[in-house]
Amino acid sequence: MIQFVYLVLFISVSNLFFSKKIDVWILLILSFYTHAQRVTFTEKTQLIQYVTGTMGQAKCAADMNGDGLDDITRVSKEGIFIDFQQIDCSFSSHFFPLEIKALPEWSITAGDINSDGLNDLLFGGVSKVSFVLSGVYRNQFIEKVASIPVTSQRSNFIDINQDGLLDAFVCNDIGKSIPFRNTGIEEMQIDFSLINTSELPGNYSSVWTDYNNDGKADLYVSKCLPNTLPGHPARTNLLYKNLGSNQFQEVGAQAHVDDNAQSWTSVFEDFDHDGDMDFLVINHDDNNRFYRNNGDGTFTDIIEFTGIDVFDPGAFEAVSGDFDNDGNPDIISELNKQLYLGNGDLTFFGQQLVFKPGAIGDFNNDGFLDITTRSQVWINDGNKNHFVKFMLKGWESNHNGIGAKILIRTGNKIQTRELRAGQSYSPMNTLNVHFGLGKDTIIDEVKIIWPSGIQTILLNVASDSLYTIAEGICSLPVTKILYDNINHMCPGKSKALKLPEAYSLYRWNNGFTENSIHISGPGLYYAMYRDSSGCTGLSDQVIIADPDNIQHTIEITEGDSINCTGEMVVISSSSARSVWSGGESGTEEITVTQNGEYFTQLILFALRELIFHAKFL
User: Fold this and answer.
1) What gap in Å lies between CA 224 and CA 283, rounded to an integer?
2) Which domains does the chain have, with CATH numbers?
3) pTM of whole model > 0.85?
4) Of 147, 142, 139, 140, the residue nearest 131 (C-alpha)
5) What's the helix, strand, coil split of the chain in %, to 5?
6) Are strands 370-373 and 442-449 parallel, antiparallel or unpaired?
7) pLDDT at position 7 over 60
8) pLDDT tens digit string along 280-318?
Protein backbone atom coordinates (compact mmCIF):
# COMPACT_ATOMS: atom_id res chain seq x y z
CA MET A 1 0.00 0.00 0.00
CA ILE A 2 1.30 3.48 -0.87
CA GLN A 3 0.16 6.19 1.50
CA PHE A 4 0.16 9.73 0.09
CA VAL A 5 0.80 12.86 2.17
CA TYR A 6 -0.09 16.20 0.62
CA LEU A 7 2.19 19.07 1.73
CA VAL A 8 1.44 22.66 0.69
CA LEU A 9 4.36 25.12 0.70
CA PHE A 10 4.10 28.91 0.44
CA ILE A 11 7.07 30.58 -1.24
CA SER A 12 7.57 34.28 -2.00
CA VAL A 13 9.88 34.87 -4.97
CA SER A 14 10.96 37.85 -7.05
CA ASN A 15 9.95 37.80 -10.68
CA LEU A 16 12.88 38.39 -13.00
CA PHE A 17 10.79 40.32 -15.50
CA PHE A 18 8.74 42.39 -13.09
CA SER A 19 9.75 44.42 -10.08
CA LYS A 20 7.17 42.92 -7.75
CA LYS A 21 7.23 39.71 -5.77
CA ILE A 22 5.01 36.78 -6.73
CA ASP A 23 3.45 34.47 -4.17
CA VAL A 24 3.77 30.83 -5.27
CA TRP A 25 1.85 27.94 -3.74
CA ILE A 26 3.48 24.58 -4.38
CA LEU A 27 1.73 21.27 -3.77
CA LEU A 28 4.16 18.49 -2.95
CA ILE A 29 2.95 14.93 -2.93
CA LEU A 30 5.10 12.77 -0.71
CA SER A 31 4.64 9.02 -0.69
CA PHE A 32 5.84 6.22 1.49
CA TYR A 33 5.05 2.55 1.91
CA THR A 34 2.95 1.50 4.85
CA HIS A 35 1.76 -1.75 6.34
CA ALA A 36 -0.77 -2.39 9.05
CA GLN A 37 1.41 -4.28 11.51
CA ARG A 38 4.72 -6.03 11.90
CA VAL A 39 5.12 -9.78 12.16
CA THR A 40 6.84 -11.15 15.25
CA PHE A 41 8.26 -14.57 16.03
CA THR A 42 9.18 -16.35 19.26
CA GLU A 43 12.05 -18.80 19.41
CA LYS A 44 10.87 -22.23 20.56
CA THR A 45 13.85 -24.38 19.70
CA GLN A 46 13.13 -26.41 22.83
CA LEU A 47 10.26 -28.05 20.94
CA ILE A 48 12.68 -30.22 18.98
CA GLN A 49 15.48 -32.51 20.04
CA TYR A 50 19.02 -31.18 20.15
CA VAL A 51 21.19 -33.07 17.68
CA THR A 52 24.74 -32.58 16.42
CA GLY A 53 26.21 -32.78 12.95
CA THR A 54 23.27 -31.23 11.10
CA MET A 55 24.07 -27.51 11.32
CA GLY A 56 25.62 -27.25 7.86
CA GLN A 57 22.93 -29.19 6.02
CA ALA A 58 19.79 -27.85 4.34
CA LYS A 59 16.59 -28.19 6.40
CA CYS A 60 13.24 -29.67 5.40
CA ALA A 61 9.77 -28.68 6.70
CA ALA A 62 7.63 -31.13 4.73
CA ASP A 63 5.25 -33.68 6.27
CA MET A 64 7.16 -36.96 6.48
CA ASN A 65 4.61 -39.39 7.97
CA GLY A 66 1.51 -38.54 5.94
CA ASP A 67 -0.60 -36.96 8.69
CA GLY A 68 -0.75 -33.50 7.10
CA LEU A 69 1.30 -31.87 9.86
CA ASP A 70 4.62 -30.26 8.94
CA ASP A 71 7.65 -32.02 10.40
CA ILE A 72 11.29 -30.95 10.75
CA THR A 73 13.93 -33.10 9.05
CA ARG A 74 17.66 -32.76 9.68
CA VAL A 75 20.47 -34.86 8.25
CA SER A 76 23.92 -35.85 9.50
CA LYS A 77 26.50 -38.37 8.37
CA GLU A 78 24.98 -40.90 10.77
CA GLY A 79 21.39 -40.69 9.55
CA ILE A 80 18.13 -38.78 9.40
CA PHE A 81 16.57 -36.99 12.37
CA ILE A 82 12.86 -36.24 12.10
CA ASP A 83 10.90 -34.28 14.66
CA PHE A 84 7.30 -35.34 13.97
CA GLN A 85 4.70 -32.71 14.80
CA GLN A 86 1.96 -34.02 17.07
CA ILE A 87 -1.71 -33.12 17.32
CA ASP A 88 -1.02 -31.35 20.63
CA CYS A 89 1.60 -29.08 18.93
CA SER A 90 4.52 -30.89 20.54
CA PHE A 91 7.13 -32.85 18.58
CA SER A 92 8.24 -36.46 18.84
CA SER A 93 11.84 -37.05 17.79
CA HIS A 94 12.94 -40.12 15.91
CA PHE A 95 16.35 -41.09 14.52
CA PHE A 96 16.69 -43.26 11.43
CA PRO A 97 20.27 -44.56 11.31
CA LEU A 98 21.79 -44.52 7.82
CA GLU A 99 25.32 -43.87 6.61
CA ILE A 100 24.62 -40.87 4.38
CA LYS A 101 26.76 -40.80 1.24
CA ALA A 102 25.54 -37.48 -0.19
CA LEU A 103 24.92 -34.94 2.56
CA PRO A 104 22.51 -32.14 1.55
CA GLU A 105 25.08 -29.36 1.93
CA TRP A 106 23.48 -27.30 -0.84
CA SER A 107 19.84 -28.34 -1.07
CA ILE A 108 17.16 -30.73 0.09
CA THR A 109 13.87 -31.49 -1.66
CA ALA A 110 10.87 -33.62 -0.70
CA GLY A 111 8.25 -35.37 -2.81
CA ASP A 112 6.58 -38.74 -3.22
CA ILE A 113 8.72 -40.55 -5.79
CA ASN A 114 6.99 -43.94 -5.54
CA SER A 115 3.42 -42.70 -4.92
CA ASP A 116 3.08 -44.54 -1.60
CA GLY A 117 1.76 -41.50 0.27
CA LEU A 118 5.05 -40.72 2.03
CA ASN A 119 7.50 -38.05 0.96
CA ASP A 120 10.92 -39.16 -0.18
CA LEU A 121 13.98 -36.91 -0.24
CA LEU A 122 16.55 -35.58 -2.69
CA PHE A 123 19.93 -34.62 -1.26
CA GLY A 124 22.04 -32.11 -3.20
CA GLY A 125 25.65 -32.35 -2.06
CA VAL A 126 29.00 -30.84 -2.96
CA SER A 127 29.89 -33.66 -5.36
CA LYS A 128 26.98 -36.11 -5.19
CA VAL A 129 23.22 -36.28 -5.53
CA SER A 130 21.12 -38.98 -3.91
CA PHE A 131 17.48 -40.01 -3.70
CA VAL A 132 16.32 -41.27 -0.32
CA LEU A 133 13.22 -43.47 -0.18
CA SER A 134 11.11 -43.02 2.92
CA GLY A 135 10.96 -45.81 5.47
CA VAL A 136 9.17 -44.04 8.31
CA TYR A 137 6.94 -47.01 9.14
CA ARG A 138 9.62 -49.61 8.40
CA ASN A 139 12.14 -47.70 10.53
CA GLN A 140 14.50 -47.65 7.56
CA PHE A 141 15.36 -45.19 4.79
CA ILE A 142 17.16 -46.24 1.59
CA GLU A 143 19.65 -43.91 -0.11
CA LYS A 144 20.41 -44.29 -3.82
CA VAL A 145 23.30 -42.17 -5.11
CA ALA A 146 23.20 -40.82 -8.68
CA SER A 147 25.47 -42.55 -11.15
CA ILE A 148 27.60 -39.49 -11.99
CA PRO A 149 29.18 -36.80 -9.79
CA VAL A 150 27.20 -33.57 -9.62
CA THR A 151 28.26 -30.32 -7.97
CA SER A 152 24.68 -29.58 -7.11
CA GLN A 153 22.97 -26.37 -6.10
CA ARG A 154 19.15 -26.00 -5.96
CA SER A 155 17.15 -29.16 -6.70
CA ASN A 156 13.47 -29.62 -7.57
CA PHE A 157 10.85 -32.32 -7.97
CA ILE A 158 8.51 -31.78 -10.94
CA ASP A 159 6.75 -34.09 -13.42
CA ILE A 160 8.59 -32.89 -16.52
CA ASN A 161 7.22 -35.47 -18.98
CA GLN A 162 3.68 -35.47 -17.54
CA ASP A 163 3.48 -39.23 -16.99
CA GLY A 164 2.11 -38.89 -13.46
CA LEU A 165 5.45 -39.54 -11.76
CA LEU A 166 7.75 -37.00 -10.15
CA ASP A 167 10.97 -36.37 -12.04
CA ALA A 168 13.82 -34.27 -10.67
CA PHE A 169 15.99 -31.39 -11.80
CA VAL A 170 19.32 -30.52 -10.20
CA CYS A 171 21.27 -27.32 -10.88
CA ASN A 172 24.90 -28.13 -11.65
CA ASP A 173 27.47 -25.54 -10.62
CA ILE A 174 30.23 -26.74 -12.95
CA GLY A 175 28.35 -27.79 -16.07
CA LYS A 176 25.06 -28.78 -17.62
CA SER A 177 22.20 -29.17 -15.13
CA ILE A 178 20.88 -32.69 -14.65
CA PRO A 179 17.29 -33.91 -15.19
CA PHE A 180 16.31 -37.26 -13.66
CA ARG A 181 13.44 -39.34 -15.07
CA ASN A 182 11.31 -41.38 -12.69
CA THR A 183 11.22 -44.93 -14.06
CA GLY A 184 8.28 -45.96 -11.88
CA ILE A 185 10.27 -48.68 -10.14
CA GLU A 186 11.89 -46.50 -7.45
CA GLU A 187 14.79 -45.58 -9.72
CA MET A 188 15.70 -42.10 -10.96
CA GLN A 189 17.67 -42.13 -14.22
CA ILE A 190 19.56 -39.26 -15.82
CA ASP A 191 17.67 -38.37 -19.00
CA PHE A 192 18.54 -35.24 -20.97
CA SER A 193 15.60 -35.84 -23.29
CA LEU A 194 13.37 -34.44 -20.52
CA ILE A 195 14.90 -30.96 -20.88
CA ASN A 196 18.06 -29.87 -22.66
CA THR A 197 19.52 -26.85 -20.89
CA SER A 198 22.69 -24.82 -21.41
CA GLU A 199 26.09 -26.49 -21.27
CA LEU A 200 27.48 -23.53 -19.33
CA PRO A 201 28.24 -23.72 -15.58
CA GLY A 202 27.01 -21.43 -12.82
CA ASN A 203 23.50 -22.84 -12.37
CA TYR A 204 22.54 -21.81 -8.84
CA SER A 205 18.79 -21.76 -8.36
CA SER A 206 15.83 -23.10 -10.34
CA VAL A 207 12.11 -22.45 -10.11
CA TRP A 208 9.46 -24.32 -12.07
CA THR A 209 6.56 -21.96 -12.73
CA ASP A 210 3.89 -21.44 -15.39
CA TYR A 211 4.83 -17.83 -16.18
CA ASN A 212 2.62 -17.55 -19.29
CA ASN A 213 -0.47 -19.37 -17.97
CA ASP A 214 -0.57 -21.97 -20.73
CA GLY A 215 -0.88 -24.88 -18.29
CA LYS A 216 2.72 -26.08 -18.66
CA ALA A 217 5.52 -25.65 -16.13
CA ASP A 218 8.36 -23.45 -17.38
CA LEU A 219 11.83 -23.15 -15.84
CA TYR A 220 13.79 -20.11 -14.66
CA VAL A 221 17.45 -20.58 -13.71
CA SER A 222 19.33 -17.98 -11.64
CA LYS A 223 22.99 -17.95 -12.68
CA CYS A 224 26.20 -17.03 -10.89
CA LEU A 225 29.79 -17.79 -11.88
CA PRO A 226 32.55 -16.44 -9.63
CA ASN A 227 35.58 -14.69 -11.09
CA THR A 228 33.83 -13.66 -14.30
CA LEU A 229 33.24 -10.16 -15.61
CA PRO A 230 29.87 -8.68 -16.57
CA GLY A 231 28.83 -9.86 -19.99
CA HIS A 232 30.08 -13.42 -19.55
CA PRO A 233 27.31 -15.70 -20.92
CA ALA A 234 27.51 -18.10 -17.96
CA ARG A 235 26.18 -15.27 -15.75
CA THR A 236 22.99 -14.72 -17.76
CA ASN A 237 19.78 -15.97 -16.16
CA LEU A 238 17.75 -18.32 -18.36
CA LEU A 239 14.02 -18.73 -18.93
CA TYR A 240 12.95 -21.99 -20.57
CA LYS A 241 9.47 -21.84 -22.09
CA ASN A 242 7.73 -25.22 -22.06
CA LEU A 243 6.44 -25.99 -25.58
CA GLY A 244 5.08 -29.40 -24.60
CA SER A 245 6.29 -32.93 -25.42
CA ASN A 246 9.57 -32.33 -23.54
CA GLN A 247 10.47 -29.41 -25.81
CA PHE A 248 11.75 -26.20 -24.21
CA GLN A 249 12.84 -22.91 -25.76
CA GLU A 250 15.12 -20.45 -23.99
CA VAL A 251 13.36 -17.05 -24.15
CA GLY A 252 15.06 -14.99 -21.44
CA ALA A 253 16.03 -12.15 -23.78
CA GLN A 254 12.61 -12.00 -25.44
CA ALA A 255 10.95 -11.89 -22.01
CA HIS A 256 13.42 -9.21 -20.78
CA VAL A 257 14.58 -11.32 -17.82
CA ASP A 258 18.07 -12.23 -19.07
CA ASP A 259 19.77 -10.63 -16.08
CA ASN A 260 23.57 -10.82 -16.37
CA ALA A 261 24.32 -9.96 -12.74
CA GLN A 262 25.57 -12.59 -10.31
CA SER A 263 22.14 -13.93 -9.30
CA TRP A 264 21.70 -16.36 -6.43
CA THR A 265 17.99 -17.11 -6.28
CA SER A 266 14.57 -15.89 -7.46
CA VAL A 267 11.12 -15.69 -5.87
CA PHE A 268 8.01 -16.23 -8.02
CA GLU A 269 4.52 -15.31 -6.80
CA ASP A 270 1.41 -13.47 -7.97
CA PHE A 271 2.19 -10.40 -5.88
CA ASP A 272 -0.52 -8.17 -7.40
CA HIS A 273 -3.42 -10.65 -7.71
CA ASP A 274 -3.74 -10.35 -11.48
CA GLY A 275 -3.36 -14.08 -12.09
CA ASP A 276 0.24 -14.27 -13.33
CA MET A 277 3.59 -14.73 -11.64
CA ASP A 278 5.87 -11.79 -10.88
CA PHE A 279 9.32 -12.34 -9.38
CA LEU A 280 12.22 -10.97 -7.39
CA VAL A 281 15.84 -11.73 -8.33
CA ILE A 282 18.50 -11.54 -5.60
CA ASN A 283 21.86 -10.37 -6.99
CA HIS A 284 25.36 -10.19 -5.55
CA ASP A 285 27.24 -7.65 -7.67
CA ASP A 286 24.49 -5.46 -9.06
CA ASN A 287 21.02 -4.17 -8.29
CA ASN A 288 18.32 -6.59 -7.27
CA ARG A 289 15.46 -6.88 -9.77
CA PHE A 290 11.72 -7.12 -9.39
CA TYR A 291 10.00 -8.21 -12.57
CA ARG A 292 6.33 -7.44 -13.08
CA ASN A 293 4.61 -9.91 -15.39
CA ASN A 294 3.09 -7.91 -18.25
CA GLY A 295 0.72 -10.74 -19.17
CA ASP A 296 2.04 -11.01 -22.73
CA GLY A 297 5.08 -13.20 -22.14
CA THR A 298 7.32 -10.28 -21.14
CA PHE A 299 8.36 -8.68 -17.86
CA THR A 300 9.34 -5.19 -16.69
CA ASP A 301 11.80 -4.45 -13.87
CA ILE A 302 9.98 -2.15 -11.42
CA ILE A 303 12.03 -2.67 -8.27
CA GLU A 304 12.53 1.06 -7.66
CA PHE A 305 8.77 1.38 -7.13
CA THR A 306 8.32 -1.62 -4.82
CA GLY A 307 9.86 -0.49 -1.54
CA ILE A 308 12.43 -3.30 -1.73
CA ASP A 309 15.99 -2.05 -1.40
CA VAL A 310 17.51 -1.91 -4.88
CA PHE A 311 21.08 -1.62 -3.56
CA ASP A 312 21.14 -4.50 -1.07
CA PRO A 313 23.23 -7.25 -2.67
CA GLY A 314 24.58 -10.50 -1.29
CA ALA A 315 21.59 -12.50 -0.05
CA PHE A 316 21.53 -16.27 -0.54
CA GLU A 317 18.01 -17.34 0.47
CA ALA A 318 14.69 -15.80 -0.54
CA VAL A 319 11.19 -17.26 -0.65
CA SER A 320 7.58 -16.12 -0.46
CA GLY A 321 4.73 -16.81 1.97
CA ASP A 322 1.89 -14.93 3.63
CA PHE A 323 3.34 -14.47 7.11
CA ASP A 324 0.67 -12.11 8.44
CA ASN A 325 -2.27 -13.90 6.77
CA ASP A 326 -3.56 -10.68 5.26
CA GLY A 327 -4.07 -12.28 1.85
CA ASN A 328 -0.97 -10.71 0.26
CA PRO A 329 2.25 -12.69 -0.34
CA ASP A 330 5.36 -11.56 1.54
CA ILE A 331 9.06 -12.23 0.94
CA ILE A 332 11.51 -13.53 3.53
CA SER A 333 15.18 -13.38 2.59
CA GLU A 334 18.71 -12.57 3.72
CA LEU A 335 18.40 -8.95 2.65
CA ASN A 336 19.09 -6.39 5.37
CA LYS A 337 15.36 -6.19 5.94
CA GLN A 338 14.69 -9.89 6.15
CA LEU A 339 10.90 -9.71 5.81
CA TYR A 340 9.13 -7.63 3.17
CA LEU A 341 5.40 -7.63 3.84
CA GLY A 342 3.38 -7.43 0.65
CA ASN A 343 0.58 -4.94 0.17
CA GLY A 344 -0.96 -6.78 -2.78
CA ASP A 345 -0.09 -4.03 -5.28
CA LEU A 346 3.60 -4.79 -5.97
CA THR A 347 4.70 -2.66 -3.01
CA PHE A 348 6.23 -3.93 0.20
CA PHE A 349 7.02 -2.82 3.73
CA GLY A 350 10.37 -4.03 5.05
CA GLN A 351 11.10 -5.10 8.61
CA GLN A 352 14.06 -6.76 10.26
CA LEU A 353 14.13 -10.15 11.93
CA VAL A 354 16.60 -11.54 14.45
CA PHE A 355 17.14 -14.73 12.44
CA LYS A 356 17.92 -15.71 8.88
CA PRO A 357 15.38 -17.51 6.68
CA GLY A 358 15.21 -21.27 6.42
CA ALA A 359 12.52 -23.86 5.78
CA ILE A 360 8.92 -22.64 6.06
CA GLY A 361 6.18 -24.71 7.70
CA ASP A 362 3.31 -24.47 10.15
CA PHE A 363 4.93 -26.04 13.20
CA ASN A 364 2.04 -25.59 15.61
CA ASN A 365 -0.81 -26.02 13.12
CA ASP A 366 -2.31 -22.62 13.88
CA GLY A 367 -2.39 -21.48 10.26
CA PHE A 368 0.54 -19.06 10.56
CA LEU A 369 3.84 -19.77 8.80
CA ASP A 370 6.83 -20.55 11.02
CA ILE A 371 10.55 -20.96 10.27
CA THR A 372 13.22 -23.51 11.07
CA THR A 373 16.74 -22.31 10.37
CA ARG A 374 20.04 -23.88 11.37
CA SER A 375 18.88 -25.79 14.47
CA GLN A 376 16.36 -23.20 15.60
CA VAL A 377 12.56 -23.07 15.50
CA TRP A 378 10.83 -19.69 15.26
CA ILE A 379 7.07 -19.70 15.83
CA ASN A 380 4.95 -16.97 14.28
CA ASP A 381 3.11 -15.08 17.03
CA GLY A 382 0.13 -14.65 14.71
CA ASN A 383 -2.79 -12.25 14.79
CA LYS A 384 -6.57 -12.41 14.29
CA ASN A 385 -6.44 -13.04 10.53
CA HIS A 386 -7.78 -16.26 9.02
CA PHE A 387 -6.21 -18.87 6.74
CA VAL A 388 -6.81 -21.99 4.70
CA LYS A 389 -4.46 -24.83 3.73
CA PHE A 390 -4.71 -27.53 1.07
CA MET A 391 -2.94 -30.88 0.79
CA LEU A 392 -3.26 -32.34 -2.71
CA LYS A 393 -3.48 -35.99 -3.76
CA GLY A 394 -3.04 -36.57 -7.47
CA TRP A 395 -4.64 -39.36 -9.51
CA GLU A 396 -3.72 -38.67 -13.14
CA SER A 397 -1.11 -36.19 -11.89
CA ASN A 398 1.82 -36.97 -9.60
CA HIS A 399 0.79 -38.06 -6.13
CA ASN A 400 1.68 -34.73 -4.44
CA GLY A 401 0.02 -32.65 -7.15
CA ILE A 402 3.30 -30.74 -7.51
CA GLY A 403 2.96 -28.26 -10.37
CA ALA A 404 -0.72 -27.61 -9.64
CA LYS A 405 -2.08 -24.08 -9.67
CA ILE A 406 -4.53 -23.18 -6.89
CA LEU A 407 -6.78 -20.12 -7.06
CA ILE A 408 -9.13 -18.90 -4.36
CA ARG A 409 -11.73 -16.14 -4.62
CA THR A 410 -13.09 -14.14 -1.70
CA GLY A 411 -15.36 -11.38 -2.95
CA ASN A 412 -13.56 -9.60 -5.77
CA LYS A 413 -10.09 -10.72 -4.68
CA ILE A 414 -8.35 -13.69 -6.29
CA GLN A 415 -5.21 -15.27 -4.89
CA THR A 416 -3.02 -17.66 -6.88
CA ARG A 417 -0.44 -20.17 -5.70
CA GLU A 418 1.63 -22.86 -7.39
CA LEU A 419 2.60 -26.02 -5.53
CA ARG A 420 6.38 -26.34 -5.87
CA ALA A 421 8.97 -28.73 -4.46
CA GLY A 422 12.24 -26.86 -4.15
CA GLN A 423 12.34 -23.07 -3.86
CA SER A 424 14.77 -20.50 -2.52
CA TYR A 425 18.38 -21.74 -2.61
CA SER A 426 18.68 -24.67 -0.20
CA PRO A 427 15.74 -25.57 2.12
CA MET A 428 12.52 -27.48 1.51
CA ASN A 429 9.25 -25.83 2.55
CA THR A 430 5.90 -27.34 3.44
CA LEU A 431 3.96 -29.02 0.62
CA ASN A 432 0.68 -27.79 2.08
CA VAL A 433 -0.59 -24.87 0.01
CA HIS A 434 -1.22 -21.96 2.39
CA PHE A 435 -3.34 -18.85 1.93
CA GLY A 436 -3.93 -15.97 4.32
CA LEU A 437 -7.50 -14.69 4.25
CA GLY A 438 -7.45 -11.51 6.33
CA LYS A 439 -10.88 -11.07 7.91
CA ASP A 440 -12.67 -13.45 5.51
CA THR A 441 -14.08 -16.64 6.99
CA ILE A 442 -15.64 -18.10 3.83
CA ILE A 443 -13.90 -18.71 0.50
CA ASP A 444 -16.42 -18.23 -2.30
CA GLU A 445 -14.58 -20.48 -4.74
CA VAL A 446 -11.50 -22.69 -4.83
CA LYS A 447 -10.15 -23.81 -8.20
CA ILE A 448 -7.35 -26.37 -8.44
CA ILE A 449 -5.81 -26.75 -11.90
CA TRP A 450 -3.91 -30.02 -11.75
CA PRO A 451 -0.82 -30.75 -13.88
CA SER A 452 -3.01 -33.11 -15.93
CA GLY A 453 -5.32 -30.22 -16.82
CA ILE A 454 -8.18 -31.55 -14.68
CA GLN A 455 -9.88 -28.84 -12.64
CA THR A 456 -11.41 -29.32 -9.20
CA ILE A 457 -13.79 -26.60 -8.05
CA LEU A 458 -15.04 -26.18 -4.48
CA LEU A 459 -17.61 -23.61 -3.34
CA ASN A 460 -18.22 -21.90 -0.01
CA VAL A 461 -15.18 -23.34 1.78
CA ALA A 462 -14.80 -22.45 5.47
CA SER A 463 -11.58 -20.87 6.71
CA ASP A 464 -9.07 -22.01 9.33
CA SER A 465 -8.73 -25.64 8.22
CA LEU A 466 -6.49 -27.97 6.26
CA TYR A 467 -8.34 -29.67 3.40
CA THR A 468 -7.05 -32.79 1.68
CA ILE A 469 -8.23 -32.74 -1.95
CA ALA A 470 -8.13 -35.66 -4.38
CA GLU A 471 -7.78 -35.00 -8.10
CA GLY A 472 -11.11 -35.12 -9.91
CA ILE A 473 -13.74 -32.94 -11.54
CA CYS A 474 -15.74 -33.03 -8.30
CA SER A 475 -15.30 -34.38 -4.78
CA LEU A 476 -16.81 -37.30 -2.86
CA PRO A 477 -17.13 -37.64 0.93
CA VAL A 478 -14.44 -39.34 3.00
CA THR A 479 -15.02 -43.09 3.39
CA LYS A 480 -13.79 -45.09 6.37
CA ILE A 481 -11.59 -48.13 5.79
CA LEU A 482 -12.94 -51.28 7.43
CA TYR A 483 -10.41 -53.48 9.24
CA ASP A 484 -9.91 -55.21 12.60
CA ASN A 485 -8.93 -51.91 14.31
CA ILE A 486 -5.64 -53.38 15.52
CA ASN A 487 -2.90 -51.00 14.46
CA HIS A 488 0.02 -53.38 14.50
CA MET A 489 0.95 -56.67 12.90
CA CYS A 490 3.76 -59.13 13.42
CA PRO A 491 6.06 -60.41 10.66
CA GLY A 492 4.52 -63.14 8.52
CA LYS A 493 0.95 -62.03 9.19
CA SER A 494 -1.52 -60.29 6.89
CA LYS A 495 -4.43 -57.93 7.39
CA ALA A 496 -7.50 -57.12 5.30
CA LEU A 497 -8.47 -53.52 4.47
CA LYS A 498 -11.79 -52.89 2.75
CA LEU A 499 -13.79 -50.08 1.19
CA PRO A 500 -17.43 -50.25 0.02
CA GLU A 501 -18.06 -51.62 -3.46
CA ALA A 502 -19.91 -48.44 -4.40
CA TYR A 503 -17.37 -46.89 -6.76
CA SER A 504 -16.10 -47.51 -10.28
CA LEU A 505 -12.37 -47.14 -9.66
CA TYR A 506 -10.05 -47.57 -6.68
CA ARG A 507 -6.41 -46.64 -6.22
CA TRP A 508 -4.64 -47.59 -2.99
CA ASN A 509 -1.37 -45.91 -2.14
CA ASN A 510 0.38 -49.29 -2.40
CA GLY A 511 -0.70 -49.61 -6.05
CA PHE A 512 -3.67 -51.98 -5.71
CA THR A 513 -6.86 -51.16 -7.59
CA GLU A 514 -9.55 -53.26 -5.88
CA ASN A 515 -11.90 -52.15 -3.13
CA SER A 516 -10.48 -54.80 -0.77
CA ILE A 517 -6.80 -55.55 -0.24
CA HIS A 518 -4.61 -57.67 2.01
CA ILE A 519 -1.45 -56.09 3.40
CA SER A 520 1.58 -57.98 4.63
CA GLY A 521 3.63 -55.34 6.40
CA PRO A 522 3.61 -52.11 8.39
CA GLY A 523 2.93 -48.80 6.71
CA LEU A 524 0.50 -46.01 5.93
CA TYR A 525 -2.56 -47.12 3.95
CA TYR A 526 -5.35 -45.19 2.26
CA ALA A 527 -7.15 -45.12 -1.07
CA MET A 528 -8.68 -42.78 -3.59
CA TYR A 529 -11.89 -43.81 -5.33
CA ARG A 530 -13.86 -42.46 -8.26
CA ASP A 531 -17.46 -42.83 -9.36
CA SER A 532 -18.83 -43.10 -12.89
CA SER A 533 -19.22 -39.32 -13.21
CA GLY A 534 -15.53 -38.65 -12.47
CA CYS A 535 -15.92 -37.43 -8.90
CA THR A 536 -13.05 -38.50 -6.64
CA GLY A 537 -12.90 -39.18 -2.92
CA LEU A 538 -10.28 -40.03 -0.36
CA SER A 539 -10.54 -42.59 2.42
CA ASP A 540 -9.34 -42.10 5.96
CA GLN A 541 -5.87 -43.38 6.80
CA VAL A 542 -4.85 -46.58 8.53
CA ILE A 543 -1.39 -46.78 10.09
CA ILE A 544 -0.04 -50.24 10.81
CA ALA A 545 3.16 -50.62 12.82
CA ASP A 546 5.66 -53.35 13.57
CA PRO A 547 5.57 -53.93 17.36
CA ASP A 548 9.30 -54.64 17.36
CA ASN A 549 9.97 -51.03 16.36
CA ILE A 550 7.91 -49.52 19.19
CA GLN A 551 9.89 -48.19 22.11
CA HIS A 552 6.96 -47.54 24.42
CA THR A 553 6.37 -48.86 27.94
CA ILE A 554 3.83 -48.44 30.71
CA GLU A 555 4.45 -49.00 34.44
CA ILE A 556 3.17 -48.31 37.95
CA THR A 557 5.04 -45.43 39.58
CA GLU A 558 2.91 -45.25 42.76
CA GLY A 559 0.65 -47.92 44.24
CA ASP A 560 0.14 -51.55 43.21
CA SER A 561 -1.86 -53.49 40.65
CA ILE A 562 -4.27 -54.50 43.46
CA ASN A 563 -5.26 -51.76 45.93
CA CYS A 564 -7.74 -51.01 48.67
CA THR A 565 -10.76 -48.81 48.04
CA GLY A 566 -9.85 -45.16 48.48
CA GLU A 567 -6.25 -45.64 47.46
CA MET A 568 -4.86 -44.41 44.20
CA VAL A 569 -2.48 -45.72 41.57
CA VAL A 570 -0.22 -43.59 39.39
CA ILE A 571 0.64 -45.19 36.05
CA SER A 572 3.22 -43.78 33.68
CA SER A 573 3.96 -44.05 29.97
CA SER A 574 7.49 -43.81 28.60
CA SER A 575 6.37 -41.07 26.22
CA ALA A 576 4.69 -37.73 26.87
CA ARG A 577 3.37 -38.01 23.29
CA SER A 578 0.72 -40.46 24.42
CA VAL A 579 -3.06 -40.39 24.39
CA TRP A 580 -4.66 -42.17 27.36
CA SER A 581 -7.92 -44.08 27.30
CA GLY A 582 -9.60 -41.30 29.28
CA GLY A 583 -8.62 -38.71 26.69
CA GLU A 584 -5.62 -37.25 28.54
CA SER A 585 -2.78 -36.25 26.23
CA GLY A 586 0.61 -34.61 26.52
CA THR A 587 1.29 -36.20 29.92
CA GLU A 588 3.38 -39.16 30.95
CA GLU A 589 1.34 -39.96 34.08
CA ILE A 590 -2.29 -40.38 35.05
CA THR A 591 -3.86 -41.18 38.43
CA VAL A 592 -6.61 -43.82 38.71
CA THR A 593 -8.87 -44.66 41.66
CA GLN A 594 -11.40 -47.08 40.15
CA ASN A 595 -11.43 -50.57 38.73
CA GLY A 596 -10.90 -50.67 35.02
CA GLU A 597 -8.70 -51.11 32.00
CA TYR A 598 -6.45 -48.17 31.23
CA PHE A 599 -4.41 -47.93 28.07
CA THR A 600 -2.27 -45.53 26.09
CA GLN A 601 -1.42 -45.05 22.43
CA LEU A 602 1.75 -43.45 21.11
CA ILE A 603 0.70 -40.54 18.93
CA LEU A 604 3.69 -40.63 16.60
CA PHE A 605 2.54 -43.55 14.51
CA ALA A 606 -0.81 -44.32 16.23
CA LEU A 607 0.67 -47.62 17.33
CA ARG A 608 -0.32 -50.51 19.56
CA GLU A 609 -2.13 -49.93 22.81
CA LEU A 610 -0.38 -50.61 26.10
CA ILE A 611 -2.89 -51.79 28.70
CA PHE A 612 -2.88 -51.63 32.51
CA HIS A 613 -5.57 -53.39 34.56
CA ALA A 614 -6.35 -51.63 37.86
CA LYS A 615 -8.25 -53.47 40.60
CA PHE A 616 -9.50 -51.98 43.89
CA LEU A 617 -10.78 -54.22 46.71
Assistant:
1) 9
2) 2-33 (no CATH), 41-418 (2.130.10.10), 476-547 (2.60.40.10), 550-616 (no CATH)
3) yes
4) 142
5) 5, 45, 50
6) unpaired
7) no
8) 999 999 999 999 999 999 999 999 999 999 999 999 999
